Batch of 2 targets.
Target 1
Amino acid sequence: MSMRAEIVAVGTELLLGQIVNTNAQFLSRGLAELGIDVYYQTVVGDNSERLLATIELARKRADLIVFTGGLGPTLDDLTRDAVASYLGRGIEMHEPTLRKLEEMFAGRGAALIESNRRQAMLVEGATPLRNSTGLAIGNALTVNGTHYLLLPGPPREMKPMFENDASTWLKKLLGPAEVLHSVMLRFAGIGESALEDMLIDLIREQTDPTIAPYAKEGEVAVRVSTKAADAEEAARKLDGTLTEIRRRTDRFLYAEEDVPIETAVVQLLVRQRRTASLAESCTGGMVAELMTSVPGSADAFLGGVVSYTNAVKMKLLGVPRELLEGENAPGAVSEQTAAAMAEGVRAAADSDFGVAVTGVAGPALAEGKPVGLVYVGLAERDRPTRVEKLQLSGDREGIRIRASKRALYRLWLALTGRE
Amino acid sequence: MSMRAEIVAVGTELLLGQIVNTNAQFLSRGLAELGIDVYYQTVVGDNSERLLATIELARKRADLIVFTGGLGPTLDDLTRDAVASYLGRGIEMHEPTLRKLEEMFAGRGAALIESNRRQAMLVEGATPLRNSTGLAIGNALTVNGTHYLLLPGPPREMKPMFENDASTWLKKLLGPAEVLHSVMLRFAGIGESALEDMLIDLIREQTDPTIAPYAKEGEVAVRVSTKAADAEEAARKLDGTLTEIRRRTDRFLYAEEDVPIETAVVQLLVRQRRTASLAESCTGGMVAELMTSVPGSADAFLGGVVSYTNAVKMKLLGVPRELLEGENAPGAVSEQTAAAMAEGVRAAADSDFGVAVTGVAGPALAEGKPVGLVYVGLAERDRPTRVEKLQLSGDREGIRIRASKRALYRLWLALTGRE
């Protein structure tokens, strides 16, 4: 049986536009992965009357209502009481949670005040959902065939609660054969339409498994999904499709889990005990920022130079003056300068790889060269230097992201012997 | 008269969690700025029956319904037809838009196909809203006291349409005295609660103007608003409150418009014809990335070094070995190294300022020093070098953002003579 869900986010701060409803996206995706169809997302403020009307409406149009927000300690936090009142039920204390809160506050030398005690309370008869990163306990209950899930509003509390206790509770409701299993394939070095073209017959003919492409920041992903009783049956059902996609997209498929290319590159460097350094012009530190956002990158990424000016290119990277100045010089945005930057930073950092990006991010032309023209240089210890010329489209930020991802992709090709 | 609004986003991709509903936040904030209260946000899929039910429901609970999405050329784009059908109206061609599309396609040497012609169509009797960044025209109409606004889904088309033709249309509905005028004040170097403490009596006593604090990425903002007939009356009503806030927060108030600190810093550098360079350890290129994200930064930001390793600190920044190695060395995360990094990059880039960040972003300790310990160094031509020691809280990403914003704040203090 297919289950219809509605997501109800409660909070006036959402209606004022102070925060974005990222919870709705996270939950929609999570429910889709379980094979549950989301028909509506609703946002309502911290107002009893409108919240009760929203619950009544959602009960009519959904089998499962997932609430986020309104479980906190203040008088504005209405969700638990509103659901209880709608169902004609009371509120009861969940003693194990209360004791946990009391111990936590005692450890801080503080007394547990009434408002915090409220966070240990459940709608009468509800299953408690543990909160591993905060105080408010979650609620799960089924009344007259409608399922209610009450989750906290802060994403760092809501997400682990959904992924753990709430998902376990939902999977029991669905029964084993209904659970969606999926593999996320991540691609770099190729655009969304080009990748779709490579897989178009598979996408058109799909019934089971299903194949869904997603655009990511400067990258592309494809989710391959099937419903199955367990992981083993899922693997069997997914195998043929995955093998065919792998065969067609080998040069671009960098991970079979949902991680960005910088994570794959850092992991390869660490595993191969190799190191990289960066010389960036138009990307202005973005590649370094992406690499250092990966925990553990300190073992693989030795350092980088952001060389916006020719003076810095010459002084810190050793780019020869004759490449940059003079009427017939190739200029800062050129194949020769990209190579010299990559070699310069590799030598300065004494790393195995030196990666360079130089180009025109816009909005204006530079050196009379068009916006979007980008060179990616790759220097490698004891190997000849390679340079790739690109013509990227998009606005300034788009060009910077695409150029950064392309630089990481070139490094990935070298690390995996796919060049 | 206060107007109640509902935002209806149409698109199955939202219900699948493929994209975040940032449009709802943008519109909620924009409507709040106009003094319009948003009571509900709803997301519905590309399904005629559920879309019609959503329109009927929104009409009952709102005076103004703002739709986003579903104006495109494909058969999945249902919003215009659904609204027309709900109101018992036809669809009519907007000839000026059609001619614009025909010219555009002719310019590309392509014929205008039927599906694109649909994008020039309006609900019968609607006011057209120009699309400056895309093809689909927007619709505005009032029927039986309910106002309908139909906007495209892609944010880069929706936002300019809302800010231009749609806002003009709404302001006419509201009448001049109802329009909210506001000033966004941006602060750095101070947290949200500390700023609230400084303004707490003003916030508590507020009636008109209203004062609303917002948390931004590593920064804080305060919006001061009033309703007025025109900009002149608004300025008069806001003046006293703004003067008092300025007096109390002078050291932290860096802009009276909604821009991040990096924009303020780059503008000051350009205006003062001064230059800066960066040496980053724990922030890994984030400060450089922020500065270079500001158009025009090439005139002010000469370059930077991301020095993750001691070897790079010594080689490219000239940090003395005795600061980094040996049992009694202060180490990479120290006041002395922060100063040496700032002076080293300033000398290498020959810039007016050299800014350095070194610290422990976590998740693990480094050199036995605690996560969150960060030093910000500021070297200046012909002036003594200053170093600030910080103990920041948060996860790895949070510490990196706070440290980056703090480094920019130090530079702002120096540029404005507020140190």
Target 2
Amino acid sequence: MPQDELQDQMLDVASSATIPEVPSVAGEDGIAPPLGDMSAEEFRRHGRAVVDWMADYFERVEQLPVLAQVEPGEPISKLPAEPPESGRPMEAILADVDRLVVPALTHWSHPGFFAYFATSTSAPGIFGEMLSAAFDVKALLWRGAPAAQELEEVTLSWLRQMIGLPKAFSGIIYDTASVSTLHAIAAAREGLDLRVREDGMSGRADLPLLRVYASEQAHSSVEKCVITLGLGQRSLRKVPTDAEFRMDPAALARAIEEDRAAGHLPFCVVATVGTTSTSSIDPVPAIADLCGRERLWLHVDAAYAGSAAVVPELRHILDGSERADSLVLNPHKWLMTPFDLSVLFTRRMDLLHRAFSLVPEYLRTLDREQEAVRNHSEYGIQLGRRFRALKFWMVLRYFGRDGLAARIREHCRLARLFASWFEAAPGWELLAPVPLSLVCFRACPPRDGETADECAARLDRLNEQIMHAVNASGEAFLSHTKLHDCFTLRLAVGNIRTTEQHVARVWQLLREAYERLDPAGGG
Amino acid sequence: MPQDELQDQMLDVASSATIPEVPSVAGEDGIAPPLGDMSAEEFRRHGRAVVDWMADYFERVEQLPVLAQVEPGEPISKLPAEPPESGRPMEAILADVDRLVVPALTHWSHPGFFAYFATSTSAPGIFGEMLSAAFDVKALLWRGAPAAQELEEVTLSWLRQMIGLPKAFSGIIYDTASVSTLHAIAAAREGLDLRVREDGMSGRADLPLLRVYASEQAHSSVEKCVITLGLGQRSLRKVPTDAEFRMDPAALARAIEEDRAAGHLPFCVVATVGTTSTSSIDPVPAIADLCGRERLWLHVDAAYAGSAAVVPELRHILDGSERADSLVLNPHKWLMTPFDLSVLFTRRMDLLHRAFSLVPEYLRTLDREQEAVRNHSEYGIQLGRRFRALKFWMVLRYFGRDGLAARIREHCRLARLFASWFEAAPGWELLAPVPLSLVCFRACPPRDGETADECAARLDRLNEQIMHAVNASGEAFLSHTKLHDCFTLRLAVGNIRTTEQHVARVWQLLREAYERLDPAGGG
């Protein structure tokens, strides 16, 4: 068909009555146009307003209560039960962020956030997320976003060098440590050559019970991983820890021996560098020795603490990890990178690929690139992948290795400083060593004539009350754990805005609460 | 200890020589300060520059080649092999986005992006991501981010109403459809009451082979899910489809019957509303009947097409889905929401909770909120969760239901229009119906004296060449699939900026390539 006939035909069809056309005039009064996105002019105006809002937010966040002071159901009660039929002006929506969202948030960007693991977003990371949201790539194949795939390879090679892992390790970005660890254990399972990928584990009398080992202090995600993978909670054997909450390698060796004797199949050990309760560090060199002898996959969970290896004098926390099969480290925890970005390093990318590669026809590429490139979607559950490497690249370049190390070093200094106050204060005690930026402590005023049980119950109650009092102040947010069955307060330093004055203020709030709640015991 | 003594002690320790303090003066020349984040003033300046950059990007994206014109390894070769030791000024980093990132991107925000499923970011969604990166919450517990949890419940209730699912469905946000479907199948597995969570599937002679069913046209993620869950590829039975690529319910019934006879245990059927290759829609009402009779979990994969149910005259695509146990829909595909945001609706949140709940002490909350709230981390693998509901809330409010419906309706109109040109043009054919916004087609110039095999090979080659020619133009990006073993071109409309002129241009490019590559066959 000649070109002009074709054009005629196109116009004919386009104007046919059966396919009505929608008018596409620009929107008015700040509402969305009938079709298409917001105009460039409005994007500029509102976008700048959002940037200014964020700058103001960071300046005033310290005046906001760090822990949300709302009741369950309160945010929902302020929102309409039915979906909006027509669009609203952007101004009104942004105003509602102030009115509805901010008061119902716990402010992780507040320098007084010391709960769980305190974490930090940062300006270069936010700019990276902004650009990533505009590009909106789904990095499912190399060709779908070459920069995403290759920037991921480069930044993870940089990170590998920064923490001193050998070149044999390759990295891949997932969303969270739970998912990174899931992939590590799945690769370990694939390495068993038991055709679990092909034949699965149900309806097979030939399969022994598969065993994974982690310490009693390991993160709950390890247990969730074995549940998800169909291995079941029974497959996870929790190894006892020593007085400082570190896995006992002798106990691990005994467990493996027992399991082999019982006909089970040990295949993976998860060691933790920086446990969630206390930041204790498992003796990885001894565990690596054992894994080498027993031919078990060694996965190191360094989700929180791994970042500290960027600091030269703290590099030793990863001693032994160079012999691991895989290691997870979360830049979104302690490398000033907005959530989410978790990194799995492994020397067995081949097994990860064997466990997860599946390329349907509609994703096959046809030219020579097929051979030359790595498509990270073939190394995991998720097919679409956000362009997370961009923010990480911007963070690494803006702060540099030295700048990141300085911040982590300062966080550790603040934690040690905070801990030093407890050492000197009667009526308080530290409950675990402070190798990094987490302090575990409690108030422990003595009282005469109590049984041990009565004392334990009293101290648990007192410390819980102290925690609630501090959190109710809005100036700081602490969380807790249990150590040796004692209610334990945790202070985790990790926010980029946290300074000495913020930890000093927590100490003051703690003392005030203590004196109010236990006037007799007060020092 | 009295307050003033305490202060003295704090100061003493703070100034002790063993804990050196790092100077904290403001940075110069646009580089990071020694500690802390970028100053508010600089944040404002650079943030506005990023906003302007994004506005410019959207204005010029059409002038960029939609498919990245780089060779594998080219982006990496332009980046240093070693990590930056010290920080760089933000200006330099942003300049490198232009220099290094943009040329190595495939532009998913380009209106000529028609590959895979075209998707779309939008201004309100980008603003939501910006705010979310500043808040940086990890919505692991309600109290960690009440607004995140409750906005998620509200927006998903809105979405449920918009697509006409009954109130018995609750929603939860995950990152991708792969992960949503993984959770659905895991919940189905939990519903078997076979103690898979507790005891796993290895070392159990008592477990029969568990079976999942999906059509031959189902997304590859279903297979990846059964691999991950330890069910294995063997557990997935692929059901034949009819001439229009829809699951054959009679074949499904036969497969289930055969499996039961062989002692296997059918437990889950995945029906697809909008398959990836052709957007075909499985006969969900008939499949739901069967699942009801056989007591199987019905999961509906409506990741792409489900959004179309927002359009009143397209609501029928979800007929039967109201009887499903779960359904996945990706707002990041066709609801103008930046990647990632996938929604799983299910009437069995209880089973999802039973499959994934695991609350360690350090995440236990202690007050009455425990009873009243839902913590979405107890309903999935991931513990930390991004504040994704914020961008979705902003998108829903800015466009409103009507605005989203108008855009989806327009995309469908463009696809039908594009398809209509093929119906009228000799030498071209449609290879599948066009129920939504995806068109499957090929050039098929006749040639005398060929065997069927020769003809098939010639047409495959020709269409592959046509696709590469169109993609090499930089003006459009198409992908392909195989239908009835024929190389098939796909045009998927889904970007908010795509207009009639863009699909008309593809038709012109296709014709030009065709005439150049097959002058004899040209119409």
